[in-house]
Amino acid sequence: MEAHVFSNLAVVVLLALGAATVVFVRRNRLWSEALAELWRRRRFSVLVVGLYVLIALLDSIAWVGGTGANGASIEAFEARSVIDRLFAGTRESSYSAPLADHAFYGGKPLEAPGTHLLGTDILGRDVLHRTLKGARVALLIGGVTTLIAIPLALLFGVTAGYFGGRLDDAVFFVMSTLASIPGLLLLIALIMALGKGTWQVCLALGVTGWVGLSRVVRGETLKLRELDYVQAARALGVSELRIVVRHVIPNLMHLVIITFVLMFSGLVLSEAILAWLGIGVDGSWGQMIDQARDELSRVPVVWWNLTAAAAALFGLLLAVNFVGDALRDILDPRTLREDG
Amino acid sequence: MLAYVIRRLAYGALVVLGVLLFLFVLFFTVATPDDIARRALGDKATPEMIDTWKANHGYDRPLWPWQDPSDNLLVSHYTSLLGFDFGRSDVDDAPIGQRIREGMGPSLALTVPMFVIGLGLGLLLSLFVAFFRETYIDRAGVFLCVLGMSVSILLYIIGAQVLIAQLLRWYPISGFDPDPDVVARFLILPIVVGVVSSVGSDVRFYRTVFVEESSRDYVRTARAKGAGELRVMAQHVLRNGMIPILTRVVLAIPFLFTGSLLLESFFGIPGLGSITVDAIRGNDFATLRVMVYIGALLFVLGQVLTDVSYSLADPRVRLE
User: Fold this and answer.
1) Are A202 and A302 members of one domain?
2) Which residues 202-241 of B have a C-beta within 8 angstroms of A?
3) Which of A77, A124, A202, B201 is most enclosed, with most CB atoms within 10 A?
4) In this model, does residue B37 exceed pLDDT 50?
5) What are the structural domains of chain B?
């Protein structure tokens, strides 16, 4: 299957999942109240995160056809996303400053003067275009990592915590083994062994994230197992599997969500470090920052590349951190205010 | 008590053996000796070149003991790393052990001051913020922390280098000289960057601990008997909050030895972090294995020490 078909399908699946979540939340009083509270407290941050998600989705819907840059060329036969199409025909030959009408070095007139809001990079690509495309990469890293880490963490954390015994010993041993390798070194070791590439990085981040998450899940399951309502369900003869699915996992979800949202910014920051080490994901903001580093020593200095990528990264992380903090305050009963 | 310490040490040793197995699986079976040779030699390597490379670097032996009980990679992987005989680099045949001994000094010269200043500053700021909890000072403090946490360390480094070294021309932008008279000149900038980049998340963590601690009953009792707010903070909250803080601090100590990958590499400090970065860039799997092993070993050691010191302080821990 071609990459863009897969990407389009993924968008459809994501939208369906989103719709299903909305239906679930509306029916569930706890979650709809929590989200209403989140909206009340952090409206702006939620909107910012939403904007990033929207850009990432728009960049994931791609099709072949239409006119390429500067009239024709190969681009007409490549799959290009909605975002790519907004920037069709804006390729220059090299650097140009934001909104300039001539090239940065040499002063030749541009193909599309005054249209590059954030200028162009060394290959003449529009910086705003590349920055917007970075949103997809960042959310892909976060999203794929979640898809790997959360199911694994629930499976291992809950079985270890709930059933205990030898199984718990074994899972706990694997967790403490992986957890005793410093995070960044573990990431690097995994990527070096698996090879470079987007999926390898996501897999490595997923494994690293899994360790932290399943420790939290296991600890909480140990507590939940002894609670009265679980004991009551067991006394009524409810099967173990049903207790886990109906009574244990739903009461873990708030912790999973809090841990994950707080972990997300760490994941994206780690990717920036990996990009600098040359083992990151293509097209990420980390890569843009890394490439832009040398441009600062040019005279006159080329600052727009670094600024754009850094601002985009900072904006996303700030919004996610604020949402995560608010979610923790709302969902975690331990942090309720004294006067509340 | 002794039984607990022995049990804890034994479990730590078991975890180290587990880490070694994980490393073996990762670097000998997921990435096979053939992969490693091909990455070292490039795409154009002939099968003969790969075989010679493997023979030169000792990768040509069978992997598992059941293939050859006397001479295999699994056993030699365990015996050499456990015996601190780290062998030679895959890239330039330099002895890894000697390189690590040389890198330890510069790494510690950077990380120890960074750790001490960071801890002091973090505690001071978080106590200040927690003292004014639920006021605008507190909110502004937490806001600044989140702001600081959202910036990539790459940006702190680039920003510092451009601002201070390129625009103001104050410090040597990078490099290192072990001479005690001038060493500080090279270290001030990376230390400042290291402290600033981590102070946000530290202060936020410590503040949460202090705020949680100051809503406990014993604090209310202390206030009720007339202790001043400053005394409550310094004598009760700080002392009781030290337990979760110490956990975080003790677990950070092993990383002093492994150095900071980014700071060392950017500022040209020839420490363990730089060695690791060079190993990644040069596909030097032998060095990388050793660095991961040392990192894990120190981490396990730190954990055992924390647990043992806990059980000394709090007898309830031993019941677990």
Assistant:
1) yes
2) 212, 215
3) A202
4) yes
5) 2-82 (no CATH), 101-313 (1.10.3720.10)
* Domain membership flag for residue A19: yes
Percentage of chain B exceeding pLDDT 90: 4
Residue range B278-295, pLDDT digits in tens: 888 888 888 888 888 988
A65 and A109 assigned to the same domain? no
Same domain for A165 and A280:
yes
Domain stops at, among A26, A58, A86: A86
Same domain assignment for residues A63 and A161? no
Instruction: Transcribe B152-204 into DSSP letters.
Output: -HHHHHHHHIIIIIIIS--S-SS-----TTTHHHHHHHHHHHHHHHHHHHHHH
A133 domain residue, yes or no: no
Asked, for residue A131, whether it belongs to a domain, the answer is no
Three-state secondary structure call for residue A302: coil
Q: Is the distance from CB of A103 to CB of A278 less than 8 angstroms? A: no
Contacts A–B by Cβ distance under 8 A: 116
Cβ-Cβ contacts under 8 Å, A293 against chain B: 154, 158
Residue B88's SS3 state is strand
A168 and A264 assigned to the same domain: yes
How many Cα atoms occupy the beta-carbon half-sphere of B74 within 13 Å? 15
Are A170 and A273 found together in one domain? yes
The pLDDT tens digits for A119-138 are 777 777 788 888 888 888 88
In A, what residues contact B, Cβ < 8 A? 173-174, 176-178, 180-182, 184-186, 188-190, 192-195, 265, 269, 272-273, 276-279, 286, 289-290, 293, 296-297, 306, 310, 313-314, 317-318, 321-322, 325, 335, 338
A18 domain residue, yes or no: yes
**Contact between chains at B26 and A325 (C-beta distance less than 8 A):** no
Contact flag B153-A273 (C-beta cutoff 8 Å): yes
Of A123, A127, A120, nearest to A101 (Cα)? A120
The kind and range of the H/E element at A48 are helix A43-58
The minimal CB distance from A185 to the residues B15, B27, B291 is found for B291
pLDDT tens digits for range A145-154: 888 888 888 8
Residue B126: its H or E element: helix B96-131
Do A60 and A118 lie in one domain? The reply is no
My answer on whether A163 and A226 are in the same domain is yes
| CATH number, domain containing residue A171 | 1.10.3720.10
Exposed e or buried b for every residue in B158-185, given b needs 16+ CB within 10 A?
Answer: bbbbbebbeeeeebebbebeeeeeeeee
Supply B202's token pair: 């530290």
pTM equals 0.83
How many angstroms separate the CA atoms of B291 and B289, rounded? 6
Domain boundaries, position A106: 95-125
Quote the number of domains for chain A. Answer: 3
Distance in angstroms (rounded) separating the CA atoms of residues B168 and B309:
47
Tens-digit pLDDT profile for residues B183-216 = 777 888 888 888 988 888 889 888 888 888 888 8
B19 in Cβ contact with B311 (< 8 Å): no
A338: pLDDT strictly greater than 60: no
- Here the tokens at position A208 are 């690293």
Q: Tokens representing B318?
A: 């031993």
Q: Does B262 touch chain A if contact means CB atoms closer than 8 Å? A: yes
Cβ burial, residue A229 (10 Å; 0-12/13-18/19+): exposed
Whole-angstrom distance, CA of residue B152 vs CA of residue B135:
29
The pair of structure tokens assigned to B127 is 């106590």
Q: Which of A23, A57, A86 is the last residue of a domain?
A: A86
